[in-house]
Amino acid sequence: MLLVLAVGPSGPSSRSEGVLVRDNNRSHNVRVTDQVQSSKVPVTVLTGFLGSGKTTLLNRILNEEHGMRIAVIENEFGEIGIDDALVIDAQEEIFEMNNGCICCTVRGDLIRILGNLMSRRDRFDRIVIETTGLADPAPVAQTFFVDERVRDELDLDAIVTLVDARHIVWHLDDERPEEVENEAIEQLAFADRIVLNKTDLVSADELEHVVQRIRSINALAEILPATYADVDLVEILDVGAFDLGRVLETDPMFLEDLDHQHDQSVTSVGLEIAGEVDEGRLNRWMSWLLANQGVDIFRMKGILAMEGVSDRVVFQGVHMLLDVETDRPWGAGEERINRLVFIGRNLDREALREQFSSCLVEAV
Amino acid sequence: MSGLHVARIACRAEPLAELGDRIASVAWASDGSALAAGSLSGQVVISDPTDGAVIELAAHELGALTVAWSPDRRLASGGQDGIVRIVDRTGEALAEHKGSGWCESLAWAPGGGGCLGAAVGAQVILWHDGGQLETHDAPSTVASVAWSVDGRRLGAAAYGGILWFERGRAAPVSAFEWKGSLLALSVSPSGKLVAVGTQEGSVRVHRLWTGDDLEMSGYTGRITELAWNSSGDVLSVGDADSVTSWTFRGRGPAGSRPDVLGGHGGRVLSLACAPSGRGAERIITGCADGRLRLYSGTDRSAPLAEIDVGAAVASLAWSPTGDSVAFGDAEGRLWLAEVAP
Fold first, then answer.
1. Chain B neighbours among A 60-79 (CB < 8 Å)?
2. What ipTM was estimated for this complex?
């Protein structure tokens, strides 16, 4: 017997500034945030295969003179406290919430550890989560959307993926049985910054090939070539990749020119379409898209020109979870152009273009 | 310290102890002669509420998460170092076990028998009086353990359900399965019901031992604060900025509306119902807004009394007689307040 009782105090969190997807019946997927700049602690997620140089990079983050107190959550160290840093061991625990909906798969271990860190009197200035090369980045990112406390007190800054320039293509081409994910592809697809490490071990031609290959999967992430993980830390910390104010700072124009692969593989699709967007139509399309293709869409970012809204509307998402808010006003001479980028599997550029175009006001 | 109803709660001007960081757990010895507190700084203390004497115990590196007194006044503590430690009333070490993962929850079997139940990482531990240790694997990290009132079964809440263990039995004797993350377990003093708070903002209540269940949903966030009244027929639940009390008398709570304890200015971090006796329906709450609030058994729309502690009230416990409350704040201070019946 299961009775569901109505409880007094609350319902789902209110969505006061609902511009996009206001009447979405899959409302738990969409979060409309206020534009409050807060003192949330930034969190960097560091992914990459064994041997890609993660430990080297992590040690640099911990040891470089920056005067910050850093907490590191990772899988191998065991729990230690070192000067101005704390390293906590995490055993990956994947929790499905809301009856197994994929968008609500989160990392239970991170919820517990992050909650503990935020309870402390001496707050950390920064948290770095290191995941193994075999970890799925989606539950890590989704933890920052789904858990109320994590969402309120922490800011997912960026997903940084390290790859070994010499071995990455081999990992990407690794044949898997159907339904088994290739983690190397997923980790590239989710990345906001890609540190292409060990470039000294490949020729210029090979490097170019590797870069092309990475671009074909994720056209949005900035690629940072490095040897011995000697990337400038400024390039990977405080990126603000999940900060809606900085969405699509990278000009996605070039995405239109990418080779189009219409198959199972993971690709990026960028759209740039002028015109005013009709809210109702957009909501209907977005609801349909998330419900039907959310599993295949790893990351999504966009800037929209909504009819009757003087501010830019920006959004970004992971699978079916979406953040939406109004950004700065459109400039006086600025052309109101909608820019959207999708990274995922089975993406059909022409279909997406057509569907989005039908959301425009003049497209009656 | 201030407040209009000073007479209802009188807090000592100075803390009993300062533990350096948030006090995660406070517990009274069964005879009220001592209390214990554990802090995220790692410190654990035993404090004498009458003379103020403090005994500092061995720390749990990186954080002490839970403390619990046995009926015969031994103290168990657990922490982020994976250690479960037992000391006597004077702080003398009696036994220690190191597991893998954090120890977030401890519970001594009621009555005699002296069996300690512990959650350490993804293991449930049954630690017999004589030192014999049983370890049981759970499918995921165990967030909370609690004994049935008769002391026969230990319940363990984890992702996937509540598992029930008995001493000397290798496998769980019963399981209440639920596909979700369960965080806080609380057995009603009547022995008839067990409540569990979930990650998804709901409270599930099972009837022991039929397993019949019901669910109260719609809370804003994960539920970790649950407390039964002493007769075991009212369950109070701490949420984002309120406490709701559900009555299990008659046909309730199906179809009923909960009593709402108003006046909170932040997340409710701790709550406890008074022990049986005079004033048994009183509830004390600790809030992120830095206030301790006392609610009467009748009108709960506003607190009967409140005191401003100046830091989030993270943990609290009634004394066995119900005439005082010990509480710990986010700054690591352990306080003692006298509370009118």
1. 79
2. 0.94
